[in-house]
Amino acid sequence: MKLKEQLNILIAQALAKASIDTTPQSVSESTKPEFGDYQFNGIMPLAKPLGRNPREIAAEVAGHIDCTTLIEKVEIAGPGFINIHLRREACAKMAEDMLHSDRLGIEPGEKPCRIIVDYSGPNMAKEMHVGHLRSTIIGDTLARLAEFLGHEVIRQNHIGDWGTQFGMLIAYLEEQDISSGVDLRNLEQFYKDAKKRFDESEIFADKAREYVVKIQSGDTHCLGLWQKFIDISLGHCEEVYDKLSVTLTKNDVKAESFYNDMLPKVIEQLDNSGVLEVSQGAKCVFVDGSEIPLIIQKGDGGYLYATTDLAALWYRSGELRADRILYVVDARQGDHFKQVFSIARSSGLVKEDIKLEHIAFGTMMDKSGKPFKTRDGGTVKLIELLDEAVSRAKTSIKEHENKSPETIEELARIIGIGAVKYSDLSINRESNYIFDWDKMLSLDGNTSLYMQYGYARIMSILDKHEGEIEMKISAQSDTEAKLLTALLKFDDVLHKAFTDSTPHTVTGYLYELVTLFMRFYESSPILRDDVPHETRHSRLSLALLTSRVIRQGLDILGIEVVNRI
Questions:
Q1: What's the order of all strands across the beta sheet hosting 294-297?
Q2: Looking at the domain assignment, is residue 559 inside a domain?
Q3: CA within 20 to 30 Å of 538's CA: 34, 293, 390, 502, which one?
Q4: pLDDT tens-digit profile of 32-73?
Q5: Euclidean distance between the first and the last CA atom of the chain, given in angstroms as a whole number
Q6: CATH classification at residue 79
Q7: What is the residue-averaged pLDDT of the chain?
Q8: Strand partners, 153
Q9: Which helix (H) or strand (E) is 75 found in, with range?
């Protein structure tokens, strides 16, 4: 059972013994550790209904709190807060249980959910750029986190592979020598060349328009060309995913084209449910709170993104039987998803009990606070940004250590890619993100390199110890006790990050943990000759457990660790 869960039970029991009938709010970590490890501040809302002084109520409740097992003592603070101090021996026993568990004592939930995570979503007509970075990284972290906590996760990569531009692209592809292999590594240039051909040749333009119709009607030849373009484009995406150590695969792709045959049925369902209206020739739905309707089908019969999104929701509800669907898409699409979710529910396209969540995130900005661009104002290609991260990390390693070329390459890959991912995940996802090379590759502050350095230091200590570690823990100093308590919070941290869809909850915890370990290491010698045997092994056990928690936390973030830097 999670630490916070145990404390909440003890608080609830104390409230019942004090004859206070209420559902208490959860305890929280104390903002001032010297006043306790946790704090319960649920007394204040009870004072007015009971007509009593909040400190009196707090004192009465505190008198009924069981302080024989987990809790050492409680104190009344401020207007009616209850500060909770944990028993070191109880915490030590729980930490030992974590050490002996392959999963650090974190058991899968009794009621696992089927969770769909929709993320990344590149457009097949263009190379992946920095605009896809946050969706890809945040989405993958949430998918990894949900899986670790025992939920069934279905990844969905809703790629843009349908639309008028594809007639132009496959017509141009047809003119190339496909047998010799078409170089589509620079999709931007391929698109520009196709567009130039379209603008300069009326014959080519007519052919492109004709091919759009043929694609949509299922023409074998045109669909074959279209599939070749998609396959080559997806190969580029997979190269990016591989560099990022992202868990998306071809099997996770559910493109716009996948839902094409469902679109007429979506229109029919909306019409039958009574939500569909015709406005200026277009079929649309008016959503409460919005003066502008959401267009579902244009007057000429064409469909829009909203139609495909509704079809995807219908499929994910009916066919995939989701319990919770997460859309990791930038915050600017907030109104769109509010409308789509509302329509999906009111029309019966999704079941009432399914949780639909827009996991919004802010824009990537440069140091000046403007959207991140190349020097000439163009879009930064994601593959080039990742290569630069590895290059910068390699330069840093070469400057500080004499290592083999193979070691430098591997370290640069792990450190560079880890720095990019961690820097993004370490901020509240809804905030705009300032991209800063110097900050993300710094050893100071909440960075990936600081985590890597802390982990490597622990592994160095463990490597120097000869023999087995007797996995027995006893927190003898305040510093050890604080580290111990922080380790026990890992379970609660992961569940909070999962519930709130906030990766920065995990990174913030890891930063606190590594900082506490550094203080512990400085004040509590481990391998020194004069350290007693039992103390040495207790501190080694704390170091081992800390390394395992760091490694597991970074793994959930999709970041590898290194034993030496």
A1: 277-279, 282-285, 294-297
A2: no
A3: 34
A4: 656 678 999 888 888 888 889 999 999 999 999 999 999 999
A5: 36
A6: 3.30.1360.70
A7: 91
A8: 115
A9: strand 71-77
Domain that holds residue 33: 3-86
Decide if 482 contacts 33 (C-beta within 8 A): yes
**Within 245-318, where are the H helices?**
263-273, 305-318
The encoded tokens of residue 473 equal 């823990």
Tokens representing 137 are 């990284």
Alpha-carbon distance of 468 to 92, in angstroms, equals 19
Q: CB 167: neighbour CB atoms within 10 A?
A: 23
Boundary of a domain, candidates 53, 86, 119: 86
R_g of the chain computed on alpha carbons? 28
**Size of the chain, expressed as the number of residues it contains:** 565
Q: How many domains does the chain have?
A: 2
In a domain, 20, yes or no: yes
Does 531 fall in a domain?
Answer: no
In the numeric block, which tokens belong to residue 216?
A: 């949509």
**Residue where a domain terminates, one of 66, 86, 106:** 86
On whether the CB atoms of residues 487 and 98 are closer than 8 A, the answer is yes
Maximum Cα–Cα distance across the chain: 88
Does residue 190 have a pLDDT over 90? no
CA neighbor of 483 nearest in space, from 63, 15, 88, 118: 88
Task: Let me know: does 300 contact 333? Beta carbons within 8 Å.
Answer: no
**Residue at 417 is within a domain:** no
Rounded Cα–Cα distance for residues 217 and 69 (Å):
71
